[in-house]
Amino acid sequence: MGTKVTIDPITRLEGHGKIEIFLNDEGNVDNAYLQIPELKGFEQFCIDRPVEELPRITPRICGVCPMAHHMAATKTVDAVYHVQPTETAKKLRQLVYDCYIYEDHMLHFFFLGGPDFVVTPSAPAKERNILGVIAKVGLEIGTRVIKNRRQIRNIVQYLSGRIIHPVGGLPGGVSKGLTEEKRQEFLKVAIEARDFAKESIEIFNKIVLGNNAYVDLVVGDIYKHKTYYMGLVDENNKVNFYDGKVRVVDPDGKEFVKFGPDEYLKQIAEHVEPWSYMKFPFLKTIGWKGFKEGKQNGIYRVAPLARLNVSEGMATPMAQEEYDRMYEILGGKPAHNTLAFHWARLIEALYASEHIVELLEDKSITSPDIRNIPTEVPTEGVGIVEAARGTLIHHYKTDDHGMVKAVNLIVATVGNSAAMSLSIAKAAKALIKNGKVDDGLLNMVEMAFRAYDPCMACATHSLPGSTPLIININQDNSVIKTIRRD
After folding, report:
1. pLDDT of residue 241
2. According to the model, what pLDDT value does residue 61 have?
3. What is the pLDDT of residue 437?
4. Rounded-to-integer distance, Cα 366 and Cα 181, Å
5. Nearest to 165 by CA among 73, 84, 98, 241
6. Cβ pair 299, 422 in contact under 8 A
7. What is the pTM of this model?
8. Degrees (nearest 5) of the Cα angle 55, 236, 380?
9. Of 262, 315, 359, 411, which residue has the fewest beta carbons closer than 10 angstroms?
10. What is the pLDDT of residue 147?
11. What residues form DSSP beta bridges with 455?
């Protein structure tokens, strides 16, 4: 009879999850699953609320990526009210959004994903954390990581009211403009952030690319899948976090489809499994064929590496240089190497910082023209942004008074949900042999999901029907009663 190995809780991610690994009689892996046991129900919480409240309600889904939900909701409310933001408001939105992408990517590299590479995957668990990273890179770098993130987050707080649950987005614009004094102050911070993003890539080059064992993991087969990829691009097919069309490429890198926000229901469908509260989106025209990679299955991937795979480059010079170098080393596009998500994340952080500098060098960003007041009857709208963790879609319908009657959210992390399950199963089968399981190997299984930087708090979803609940009452280390609601 086989054995089950459980990793619960999994670590260094946002939210909660566990991994179940099933071994056969020989001690080899039959299969493995990423299970999300937590549940949230924001699509129901929002019903019958005034639609203009949703940019303030939906960020409560998560304390890590509230800006992504705030911006997606703000753009959706624009669409519901049939109003466009002013040019200045659009620049200010892009400014705070680039700040969010930058500081979130830095958080993941140094605090969550980085310990696997900087400290080593098999190091004792007590060392695989930010303190272990600081011990490796030095206290001076560690201090700058913290200082740099705080300074960038201060820009978000100034313009959006709060860093955790921002309130700056309004239909047709933003609630607060930028003074000339603050523009000059923030420009100095942005230039410092750009320099640190460049330095962070140099740290990656030295520690990861300078170590053959790490390079073998990045380019090897254990962490590789051939899937479709999805991400927003601008009119020149360059990476864009805030606006544009959604582009999808197939496993060979050929454009499969390109669509606007109002067309998403024609392109994306969602599969559910009874063992997880996380949904599994797929390309509707290809279909769901189970947890299998390849062109015949509609599984797609999102987030940093996916965005770079669907694009034809970066819109800023330093990021473009790093983009070209990454694909030259990985052997061209699309790159299917899951661990290269870390690399792509640093290139995106550099792009975000360069764009912040560009926006703040433009003195017109201090114009007081920050809002167009809506005048039309609200109806229905879709808003799409690129969250740090991938393509994020909000869709609202209202009555004539602007009261919400329907909400659909396709949250960024779920775009990678099927791929994460594939990655965990493949890594577990490759790493666990003949029943040999230790902490280092299990951490390398966790690395398969950690590269995606998932946010399980965002990814959970209400299913129609009941909420299963099992309560075990223990006494003297024994279960004396179990109460179930299946």
Report:
1. 98
2. 86
3. 82
4. 10
5. 73
6. yes
7. 0.91
8. 30
9. 262
10. 93
11. 14
Of the candidates 296, 264, 224, 227, the one whose C-alpha atom is nearest the C-alpha of residue 391 is 264
Residue 355 to residue 234: CA distance in whole angstroms: 14
SS3 467: coil
Q: How confident is the model at residue 7, as a pLDDT?
A: 83
Q: Which residues of the chain have pLDDT under 70?
A: 1-2, 38, 461-477, 481, 483-486
Which candidate, 86, 90, 88, 87, places its Cα nearest to that of 71?
Answer: 90
Q: Are 193 and 354 in contact (CB under 8 A)?
A: no
DSSP 179-240: -HHHHHHHHHHHHHHHHHHHHHHHHHIIIIIT-HHHHHHHHSSTTB---EEEEEE-TTS-B-
In the block, which residue shows the tokens 């770098």? 141
The span from the CA of 226 to the CA of 426, in Å, is 13
What is the C-alpha to C-alpha distance for residues 279 and 36, in angstroms, rounded to an integer?
10
Phi, psi (degrees; rounded to nearest 5) at 114: -55, -40
- Yes or no: say if 440 and 121 are a contact pair by the CB < 8 Å rule: yes
**Tell me, what's the pLDDT at 284?**
97
What pLDDT score was predicted for residue 113? 86
Q: Are β-strands 228-233 and 268-271 bridged in parallel, bridged antiparallel, or unpaired?
A: unpaired
Give 419's contacts (C-beta < 8 A, 6+ positions apart): 225, 227, 299, 300, 301, 338, 452
User: Which residue reads 């959706």 in tokens?
Assistant: 76
At position 301, the amino acid (one-letter code) is R
| Contact (Cβ atoms closer than 8 angstroms) between residue 174 and residue 84 | no
Instruction: For residues 486 and 482, give the distance between their C-alpha atoms in angstroms, rounded to a whole number.
Output: 12
**Tokens 């209202």 belong to residue:** 398
Instruction: Tell me how far apart the alpha carbons of residues 420 and 422 are, in angstroms, rounded to a whole number.
Output: 5
**Per-residue tokens: 169:** 């987005």
pLDDT score for 402:
96
The residue with tokens 């690395």 is: 447
Cα four-point dihedral sign 213, 390, 71, 49: negative
What is the C-alpha to C-alpha distance for residues 350 and 118, in angstroms, rounded to an integer? 19
Q: Looking up tokens 């820009």, which residue turns up?
A: 155
Report yes or no: 80 and 380 within 8 Å, Cβ to Cβ: yes
Per-residue pLDDT, 467: 54
Cα distance between residue 393 and residue 381, in whole Å: 11
**Type of residue found at 279:** K
DSSP result, 259-286: E-GGGHHHHEEEE--TT-SB-EEEETTT
